[in-house]
C-alpha cells in the first residue's frame, strides 16, 4: 500500500509498533526536542493539578521499512507522541512511565500539524469501520434468517470471502460458484436482493 502511495508522489503517515529500530530512534530524541501540547478535549484534574491528557511530541529522522529491500526503504521522519500513564492510586511514582505512539511519515507539514493530521485518521477509520460493520449486518439480513443472526466472522467466511471464479460472457461479468457450495442459496438471495432490492413489506 505504501509503495502505491509513493509511486503517486503522495504522503503517508502510519502507526507502527515499537520494534527495535523504533526504540533506538526514540532513545535518540533529546529532552529539549519534546514539545508539550494539550488536546482541546483535555480535562484539568484539580486534585493532581495537571491536565490528564498532557502529551509531548517530538520528531527525529528515520529510515522507514528497513525490513524491506534497500530500494523500498524510505528516508522519512518519526513523530513520537509520549503520554504519561495515569497513576490510579494518585500517588507520586518513583519514575514516570510513558506510553509511546510512533508515526513514520514523509509529510512536509510541520511536526505538530503532521501529528494532528495523523490523529484525524482515527476518526475517519472509525467511520469506515462503522460503515463496513453496518453493510455486513445488512448483507446478513438479506441473505437468510441464519445469517441475520450470525457473527461478523461467519458472514465474512460464508458470504464475503466467496470462492467464485469470475468470467466474462457477452460483456457481462459472471461468477461461477463452486459445485455443492453450502452457502449458494444464501449468497444468491443476497445478490438478487442487492440487484433488485428486497421485497417491500405489506
Q: In brief, what are we looking at here?
A:
This protein has 202 residues and is an alpha+beta fold. It is built from 6 helices and 8 strands.
Give short descriptive properties of this protein:
202 residues, 2 domains, 4-stranded antiparallel beta sheet, alpha+beta, 8 strands, 6 helices
Give an account of the 3D structure.
This protein is of the alpha+beta class and 202 residues long. It contains six helices and eight strands. It folds into two domains: 2-108, no CATH class; 127-196, no CATH class. It has helices at residues 2-7, 20-27, 111-143, 145-148, 152-160, 184-196; strands spanning 35-38, 44-45, 50-51, 54-64, 74-84, 98-105, 165-169, 172-176. It has a four-stranded antiparallel beta sheet, sandwiched between helices. It has a two-stranded antiparallel ribbon with strand order 2-3. Helix 3 (111-143) packs across helix 5 and helix 3 (111-143) packs across helix 6 (184-196). The longest helix is centred in the middle third of the chain and has 33 residues, at 111-143. The chain is elongated. The mean pLDDT is 83.
